[in-house]
Hints:
By secondary structure, the chain is α+β, with helices and mostly antiparallel strands. The protein has helices at 17-28, 64-80, 97-113, 122-128, 149-162, 212-217, 282-295, 353-367, and strands at residues 8-13, 31-36, 52-53, 85-86, 90-94, 118-121, 138-142, 145-147, 166-168, 171-179, 182-190, 195-200, 203-206, 225-236, 243-246, 255-259, 262-266, 304-315, 329-333, 342-347. α2 crosses α3.
Amino acid sequence: MTSTQKSHSAIVIGGGSTGAAVAHDLALRGFEVTLVERGEIASGTTGRNHCLLHSGGRYCVNDREAGIECIEENMILRRIMPDCMELNGGLFAAFDDADMDYLPLLIEGCQACEIPYKKLTGEEARRLEPYLSPQAKAALWVPDGVFEPMRMCMAFLATAKANGAKVYPFTQVEELLMEGTQVTGVRVWNRIANRRYNLHAQIVISAGGPWAEEIAAMAGIDVPVIVAPGVMVSMTGRYSQHVINRCNKADDGDIIVPQRETSIIGTSSWTVDDPDYIDIPEDHVALMLDRGSQMIPALKQASSRGVFTVARPLIGREGEDEREVSRTFECFDHDEDGIGGFVTISGGKTTTARAMAEKTVDIACRKIGLDVPCRTHETVLLSYRAFYTI
């Protein structure tokens, strides 16, 4: 089916992992798709995250819904985009008695969420990871991995473009176009050409992550998004082959992700009002270095390659403890708010972007009476390199 034959149309706002996955799913189901992103592809939350392909181990004790989502999507992404992944596995390492007390809870959580695991002694863990602290008493292997954020988005979008989608980076949405209570399109500013114009479609889907609340407000709608940044420190040198997690409840500085020839220590958590203006607290940086070196002491002598932060979009209300808010996602059909033709997807993880897109496009299809099943779980994506050639 070519784009000129398509009878259904959609605009996607946001070129991160969720927006890219939504565009791919829409195009695969026969929509004429236009994606707009105010910056470069993956220049928002996706491009500044921890690069962790989640096994679900971080959530399987206290947030099992998110844990199940992660392990299911982890296995799907391995099949559909292998050239974007490093499937190196992860270790949840126990260094003290409190960590050892948490280990049975982690095993129980892995079993409940059907996450594959293998229990290791401290000696076995150190044989796998020689830089691991000699204090390591035990570890649990899980199928964590590492992804390339921009390549992931480009693989989704290359496949979407092959199915007729149009992708416009550096194109910022300034206004939702309305006819009464119906969203009919967007007014955009092309930042390269410095030109403003209107785009129209049957459905407008906001996949703006931490900017979802701002986009929804253009239609007079309140979307409950908590903007929760986290500080990460990229260290020069790769000090582990596996992802190293602290075997305890999720906390500041409890994970080290090997990304190419660097080691990324993360992450802290707090809340802000504006995802565009986030100051990096110096004490958070110091905490990352301290906590990371407790797990891998050699990081004390390593040089910092860079410090960065990312605004996580969490589904919740102001005043909630962001560490206790679920990492699952939610899709909002704004018909329930009295506004037609408009859907918001937010929350979740980059690991769950495909599942987020599936739920979103299911809603879009129902809104226009289209009965076409999702096929993204079985469709192998084109190489990210094809993004520039299609």
